[in-house]
Amino acid sequence: MIEFHRVSKTYQEVRALDDVSFSVQPGTVTGFLGPNGAGKSTALRILAGLARPTSGSATVLGLPYAELGHPGYHVGTLLDASAHHPGRTGREVLTLGAMLLGLPRSRVAEVLELVGLTVKESRRAVGGYSLGMRQRLGIGHALLGRPRALILDEPANGLDPQGIQWMRGLLRDLTEAGCAVLLSSHLLYEVEQIADHIVMIGRGRVLAEGTVAELSRGRGLEQTFLDLTADADRSLA
Ligand SMILES: Nc1ncnc2c1ncn2[C@@H]1O[C@H](COP(=O)(O)OP(=O)(O)OP(=O)(O)O)[C@@H](O)[C@H]1O
Which segments constitute the ABC transporter domain (predicted)? Predict the structure, then answer.
């Protein structure tokens, strides 16, 4: 459902992505893990049509994002939880999103409930939201059109343990309904709790992919991650 095929991206001197290929199947959560600067956001931005690959292709439902008709009905994106205007209320942000998609206002109330924001909170300006509340709002915004694919950049940032548990439940419900979820993080523990499948990236290259059990190799995901990213650093030093 989500497919990266030999994607490379170069910014002047920096090779942010180097021949990246992997796919995300319907009904699964894929955790996209990598240290700072590994290329995660670049890959997700390319998938969401916000940056062009230097070569290769990234598609959702077989098409590049820009070629999807009514993308909000197919793909939900959360790339920056702080992207919304700080002076707007959470309810206004969702209402504008619903209007753009031609959805009834009743969808706003449904989404608020889905992401656990109260009526009172929804009437406050987003500038006064905690990071966790902004993440919930951003996830709600991504879900407005009931998309079949979700792209989430660092959605666990700022969520407390209850928030992580809530997100795990939400993503489980979505994947049971057939949704494909790609989420990036450098928070290993959170990804381990949430993802069915993991793609590890370092220095713009896919270092490994598989289930948590496969990648843990009996020594834990964290050790695998540290070893692989150190090897990638050494090979490019
Ligand atoms: N617009 C840009 N112009 C120049 N270089 C960029 C640009 N965007 C990203 N880069 C570089 O590309 C590389 C990958 O960055 P990217 O933000 O994709 O990594 P990341 O894995 O998301 O990191 P983090 O976990 O810190 O958010 C970095 O070296 C970064 O400096």
Answer: 2-228
